[in-house]
Hints:
Helix 14 (336-345) packs across helix 15 (373-397). This protein starts with 9 loop residues before the first helix and ends with a helix. 42% of the residues lie in helices and 14% in strands. With 398 residues, the protein is of the alpha/beta class. The strands form three sheets. It has a seven-stranded mixed beta sheet, with helices on both faces. Strands 9-10-13-12 form a four-stranded antiparallel beta sheet. The chain binds pyridoxal-5'-phosphate. Pyridoxal-5'-phosphate (PLP) binds next to helix 6.
Amino acid sequence: MNxxxxxxxxxxxxxxxxxxxxxxxxxxxxxxGKPIDAVAREFGLTDILKLASNExxxxxxxxxxETLRAQNWDLNIYPDGGGYALKAALVQQFDLEPSGIVLGNxxxxxxxxxxxxxxxPGRNAVFSAYAFAVYALATQATGAQVKVVPALPPExxxxxxxxxxxxxxxxxxxxxxxxxxxxxxxxxxxxxxQDALEAFxxxxxxxVLVVLDEAYSEYVDRPDxxxxxxxxxQFPNLVVTRTFSKIYGLAALRVGFAxxxxxxxxxxxxxxxxxxxxxLALIAAEAALQDEDFLAHSRQVNAVGLRFLQQAxxxxxxxxxxxxxxxxTVLVGIPAGIVFDALLREGVIIRPLGGRVDxxxxxxxxxxxxxxxxQNERVLAALDRVLPQLLGAKGxxx
Length: 398
Ligand SMILES: Cc1ncc(COP(=O)(O)O)c(C=O)c1O
């Protein structure tokens, strides 16, 4: 806080921070992907490639952008707080009921609504190690306890670092009110199949909410991959969240939706901000929903890029975690933060899954969003330049 208007009041600042709830002070803040502009400023670079936040490399749904361009916006008017038109489009698209839908300012908002409505000190939420970071943040912000279940081991034959559903089941106790599970999961890309998920849902006590986070599910094209929206009909305690930030390409606008039993929706609506989804986001999402061509193209480019990078890393003898999502997580063998820094100097932003020391787990892995072919080749070339130097330096100093 030096050299700021607050520099004389550091002591008061400490006291004020101390007044916050203990469990809020204990939170480690979410670190977002490094913005392109920040890298440009820091390194004096112009041509920067960001493959750090699992955004769609093809841009936004053209239907969404055309719709936004074609209209005059009454920006002085509040958006439709009930999201009538977008809900109607979702009903049509997925054969849902409006009373079973909640809209969110990104699906992140929906995860927080679940936490606010169902978690509190004395309660807990269960999720896997290496799950999406927001599950811990949303849980901790309510004062509830985080119960992190160890993931499948790195040497697991089919799903290293994947969610261990039987262990998660055993972790559920009388204080558990929410289970979070992403399918596919971020940052690993791992997944659970239809049979395993159904068996899990049958065994979870019906009073415990299971939040199935399907932020990346539109990328998956496999017959054994479960469809949460179908499972919702069978399991009243299931809450499925989806987003327009990933395959639809609308991350900047912040919009997602949850599908759940109307009784659960009614509780989430109680803690929802009245106008939580903005007008442009509502309109764009509605248009994007029907953009079948864009979705199919995005899925295809992703599948090709994912295969390309998987093979490229295999050729280099670098282990990757199995992924069905729009990113790949690869073992770089040295603390991920060091590789992140070196790639920044090459103008490439990726996501390090650890800092500058090896703390075990996935701290020596980096996550790369699948880009276009040219982008995938660029990140590979950058890695080919920096990794031998870094690994050489490590060998030389040890
Ligand atoms: C698994 C998962 N869930 C939810 C989100 C939240 O996305 P948004 O709030 O943009 O919908 C993300 C974003 O990266 C994610 O990876």
